[in-house]
Write a structure and sequence with these properties.
The complex is a heterodimer of chains A (339) and B (322). Chain A is of the alpha/beta class and 339 residues long. Chain A has helices at 21-27, 60-67, 95-98, 117-127, 134-147, 164-176, 194-211, 222-228, 246-251, 256-264, 303-307, 323-326; strands at residues 4-16, 33-45, 49-53, 75-80, 83-84, 100-103, 182-186, 214-219, 231-236, 239-245, 313-315, 318-320. In chain A, α4 crosses α5 (134-147), α4 packs parallel to α6 (164-176) and α5 (134-147) packs across α6 (164-176). The two termini of chain A are 35 Å apart. The chains are: A alpha/beta (339), B alpha/beta (322). The structure holds adenosine-5'-diphosphate (2 copies) and magnesium ion (2 copies). One adenosine-5'-diphosphate binds at residues 13, 22, 40, 42-48, 58, 61, 277 of chain B. Chain B: Keywords: ATP-binding, Cell membrane, Membrane, Nucleotide-binding, Transport.
Chain lengths: 339, 322
């Protein structure tokens, strides 16, 4: 990669779900952890978009929170433009933090309902002191409102006076108010209707071009990810199983889970495919299967897959975590259907 | 004869400035074994239409115009206890969150057996056999063992399968499924869609499938009704509506859906937003956003007109019959 702005390596986060120590002493019971993020590696080229896709619970939002310093990693490193972030205490604002902002899925929950929109958008400029003067700050707020397709007069209103799509525009204005270089977008259009989603996705692409932003984009919708991404990482139970360019993921998916995901996207071409096969569901993340996490659902499974976790290896111009791919026993042509 | 026909149905809620119509002049019909998709953005009136059909409009909302006929019988004027008998026995329901349909303190078997015995004349042992049979049909592995377990012991996808069994076990003629796959992951959603389609084929039950997801409609439905601002703007065979939409709203909606395989620089988008029920313009509710707006659209509301299979509510298509 020529100029990565962000490089994540061996990133891990586990949550301790055990009963308190005393309860465990009296009632027995073991320590239980959920390995929400279990060794994730990727880098993002400046000015591009890397998307993380995967089913709910695979660890996407936890990666987002780790990058934003909202929760501390259990292990691994996060390097942003040469600065190591993994050691910084959670929540601590720093010069780097101003350069990274986040947009959330729920534009209702992420805006303070009692503040006027101008105050919401101006808040980061105040706390990071990029615009300490209130008059200059208000001028900048008005400019931002128009930039994201609202009007300066909207600054006087409260969040409840806006539709879902307009609220997401407000969140975007707030996120770009400190002139960040990097935006983490956690399912920013998942709560919106498709016609509104198109407006927001177009706005995000426009902002990227105009401001040179880098995005980490999170979604469970492969078609959305296809539109917005340069690189796509597919996650399964805390691990990346495949990472490649958007073109590659869709034209020649390699990991059996990537293929399953692509096959199960509802298709507006009305193929009426027969999908009621036992393709299974994501297992409980507290007790993931040994070896490759995907092995109970995998049509290519063998004894090695059940015992030994595959490494994340370069294969062609993708990175894939799969014994079958690495051993050359995953010819997509021979494999008519996964599942 | 249509299994269900809804005619000019209007549901109103009292508002601060007079009564507000949640849905207006909704007319549709469905034949036995048919899957009718209802699609549209949130607030368009899909759930309200479904709620009116099963007699579960939340007061103070009420039907102020039109009617609902099930197998020729008027059901919108029935007393609540009569309607309760129809629900379950002749009309089943599946909702987005499986937990709203399941009782957490009863086993899956107890719930199925109770529903079966309420509506069908079967002994306890026969009802239990029937319940196991339904669990097998909806794809629950080892149903003989799992029948005596509780809903929380099932995964999300398996729970929705149980809800489907519960909706179908009294052998209704019609099922209203309101966003049945929205809470599920894509790989599970695909399995539930296929299951619904298979069961409709096998049992001849008709399904009204409410969803905001055009992909789900495409994979499941035979016909689709597109709703906008409380009205049906286009209805017809899925293949026709999705590949050659006539109404400018349907066209805009279809174009704005990102697709796998295409990577345009800009997604076609419809400007603006759907008006709230108390702020709908006179004339066609889509007119302010419509790229083909004509003078008449500003003051005259277009009726749903068309041929035997496809109908569109648009002044443009009125002039150029398809
Ligand atoms: N604060 C937390 N405490 C305990 N478990 C958590 C916490 N946050 C997330 N998890 C668990 O970590 C896993 C990954 O969650 P998340 O990152 O939210 O997934 P995704 O965003 O892909 O749906 C899930 O099993 C989730 O239940
Ligand atoms: N209890 C209620 N009181 C007043 N208005 C309601 C109520 N429930 C729904 N509505 C209105 O009815 C319209 C249709 O809602 P709904 O059928 O739930 O939409 P959809 O299912 O298409 O998202 C919306 O404008 C909504 O605001
Ligand atoms: Mg998440
Ligand atoms: Mg609804």
């Amino acid at each position: 990669m020529r100029d990565p702005i962000l490089t994540v390596s061996g990133l891990k986060k586990s949550f301790d779900l055990s009963q308190p120590f005393v309860t465990r002493l009296m009632k027995g019971g073991e320590r239980r952890y959920v390995h929400a993020v279990d060794g994730v590696d990727f880098s993002i080229e400046r000015g591009t978009t890397l998307s993380l896709v995967g089913e709910s619970g695979c660890g996407k939002s936890t990666v987002a929170k780790l990058l934003m310093g909202l929760t501390r990693p259990t292990g691994g490193s996060i390097r942003f433009d040469g600065h190591e972030l993994a050691g910084i205490r959670a929540g601590q604002p720093s010069v780097v933090r101003r350069r990274m902002q986040m947009i959330f899925q729920d534009p209702y929950a992420s805006l303070n309902p009692r503040w006027r929109v101008a105050r919401i958008i101006g808040e980061p400029m105040k706390s990071f002191a990029t615009h300490p003067d209130p008059v200059a700050r208000r001028k900048e707020v008005d400019r931002l409102l128009e930039f994201v397709g609202l009007s300066a007069a909207d600054g006087e209103k409260f969040p409840h006076e806006f539709s879902g799509g307009q609220r997401q525009r407000i969140s975007i204005a707030r996120a770009i108010s400190t002139k960040p270089e990097f935006l983490v977008c956690d399912e920013p259009t998942s709560a919106l209707d498709v016609s509104v989603q198109a407006q927001i996705l177009n706005l995000m692409r426009e902002l990227q071009k105009e401001l040179g932003l880098t995005y980490l984009f999170i979604s469970h919708d492969l078609a959305v990810v296809n539109y917005i991404s340069d690189q796509i990482g597919v996650m399964y139970l805390g691990r990346l199983v495949e990472l490649a360019s958007a073109e590659r993921i869709f034209s020649t998916p390699q990991h059996p889970y990537t293929r399953l995901l692509l096959e199960t996207v509802p298709d507006i071409t009305m193929a009426h495919r027969d999908m009621d096969r036992p393709a299974g569901e994501v297992p409980n993340p507290i007790t993931p299967p040994p070896g490759c996490h995907f092995n109970p659902r995998c049509p290519l499974v063998n004894d090695r897959c059940r015992a030994e976790a595959p490494a994340f290896r370069v294969h062609g111009d993708a990175q894939v975590r799969c014994h079958a791919v690495q051993e050359g026993r995953s010819d997509p042509k021979k494999l008519r259907k996964v599942g | 004869m249509a299994l269900l026909s809804v005619e000019n149905l209007t549901v109103a809620f009292p508002g601060r400035r007079g009564s507000v119509n949640a849905i207006e002049d909704v007319s549709l019909s469905i034949s036995p074994g048919e899957i009718l998709g209802m699609v549209g953005e949130s607030g368009a009136g899909k759930s309200m239409t479904g709620a009116a059909i099963i007699g579960l409009i939340e007061p103070p909302g009420r039907i102020v115009k039109g009617g609902i006929l099930l197998e020729g019988q008027r059901i919108d004027t029935l007393r609540p206890e009569e309607m309760r008998r129809i629900r379950g026995r002749r009309i089943g329901a599946i909702f987005q969150d499986p937990l709203t349909s399941l009782n957490p303190v009863l086993t899956v078997g107890e719930q199925l057996i109770e529903t079966i015995q309420t509506h069908l004349r079967l002994s306890k042992a026969e009802a239990r056999e029937r319940a196991i049979d339904w669990l097998r049909r909806v794809g629950i592995p080892a149903p003989e063992a799992r029948i005596d377990t509780y809903p929380h012991q099932y995964s999300g996808g398996m729970r929705q399968r149980v809800v489907i069994a519960l909706a179908l076990c009294a052998e209704p003629r019609l099922v209203i499924a309101d966003e049945p796959t929205t809470a599920l992951d894509v790989s599970v959603q695909a399995q539930i869609i296929a299951l619904l389609r298979k069961l409709a084929r096998e049992t001849g039950v008709a399904v009204i499938l409410v969803t905001h997801d055009m992909g789900v409609i495409a994979e499941t439905a035979d016909r689709v009704a597109v709703m906008y601002a409380g009205r049906i703007v286009e209805v017809g065979p899925v293949a026709e509506v999705l590949t050659a939409p006539r109404h400018p709203y349907t066209r805009g909606l279809m174009a704005s859906i990102p697709r796998i395989g295409a990577r345009p620089d800009v997604l076609p988008q419809i400007e603006g937003a759907m008006p709230r029920p108390d702020a709908r313009p006179g004339g066609c509710a889509f007119a302010p956003r419509c790229p083909h707006r004509m003078d008449i659209c500003g003051h005259t509301r277009p009726d749903l007109n068309g041929g035997a299979t496809l109908s569109v509510a648009c002044h443009l298509t009125e002039e150029v019959p398809a």
